[in-house]
Amino acid sequence: MQLSDIVGGTAPLLADWPEEPRQWQHAPDRFDELLTMGEVNEWVDSGCLALRNIELIEDGRVMERHEYQGRNGMPAPGRVRAHLDAGGTLSLRNLETVKPSVSALNQAIQEETGGTVHVNAYVTPGGCQGLRYHYDPYVTLILQVHGAKTWHVHPPVQENPTVEFGDFLQRGFTPEEHEFLATTKPADSFTLTPGTAFWLPRGFIHAPKAETGGTSVHLTIAIRERTRHWVAERLATEILALALRDPALRSVVPPAALTAGPADVVERMRAYLVGSLLQLDPAEMAELTRRAAVRPA
Fold first, then answer.
1. Is the model's pTM score more than 0.85?
2. How far apart are CA 130 and CA 124, in angstroms?
3. I need a labelling partner for 285 at 20 to 30 A (CA). Which of 12, 47, 134, 142 fits?
4. How many CA atoms lie within 13 A of 209 on its CB side?
């Protein structure tokens, strides 16, 4: 499976990156090769889920690992099933590292979009809710594989959030935003059924809840987009790597010059950086940047 199998052709999407939520509907079994409810039950009841690949979510919070860990890097026997039976949510983390079909899709999307990708699954009993309102610092492509889940959505309150600046864990909501979310009807709601693919741009506030009548299972494909800041970082990294090969730049700045005010050395290094930037070959840097995007370390 590739991205085009999910969004019905990638050329329009890649040329005009969606900035509003979007849906595609497929046959109910379209994503069975990636994950099924039967597989989830087998993993849970066999005790084969390692702690590194799970998170338990209860009453809107991600539980501390010590609350459910057992021995040898595994959860306590029966703990995950008991958590689900009590209405808690199970998050299966980084499925691209444990299932070949998900790994292949992960790699295909990474190569086609140039973004880093990881895939998690969320298992929520019917009528229950995992995380409360929050937003992500990357676009998410949600694939509903079992049951139904409704996503209540509000527009962003933080423009272009990233992991490095202004993501939800760093920023959270202000008291005024908390009050708004508690008292204001969602700007939109989307109910996903098996076979639905749902595109949620980064920054959009959401609070998904499983519909009654059965357990909801969905895959979240997180695509960390490449920003202009990331491209600038690639250029700066190349300049600094070249600079490190110059013995003169590896020489010590005298402590007296630093403590008295290093205006002279700052001016010289500023001129060095500007000159180095102008000397970089644009075509070579474009290729280096492309390779870094499609095959990140």
1. yes
2. 7
3. 12
4. 13
Burial (CB < 10 A; 0-12, 13-18, 19+), residue 175, is: exposed
* Percent of the chain predicted with pLDDT > 70: 99
How much is the pLDDT for 296? 60
pLDDT of residue 222: 96
Q: Are 112 and 2 in contact (CB under 8 A)?
A: yes
Is residue 134 a contact partner of residue 171, using CB atoms and an 8 Å limit? no
Q: How far apart are CA 101 and CA 86, in angstroms?
A: 31
Q: What one-character DSSP code corresponds to residue 251?
A: S
**Contact 199/23 with Cβ under 8 angstroms?**
yes
Instruction: Quote the CA–CA distance of 192 and 198 in Å, as a whole number.
Output: 8
Burial class (CB in 10 A: 0-12, 13-18, 19+), 119: buried
Question: What pLDDT score does 280 carry?
Answer: 87
Helix (H, G, I), strand (E, B) or coil at 286: helix
**Distance, CA of 96 to CA of 73 (rounded, Å):** 19
pLDDT in the model for residue 178: 94
The closest alpha carbon to 117, from 94, 99, 150, belongs to 94
Per-residue tokens: 148:
């139904």
Kind of pairing between the strands at 188-192 and 216-224: unpaired
Tokens 């005010």 -> residue: 261
Q: Are strands 139-146 and 61-62 parallel, antiparallel or unpaired?
A: unpaired
- Residue 89's Cβ-side half-sphere holds a number of Cα atoms within 13 Å equal to 28
Low-confidence ranges of the chain (pLDDT < 70): 296-297
CA 65 to chain centre: 21
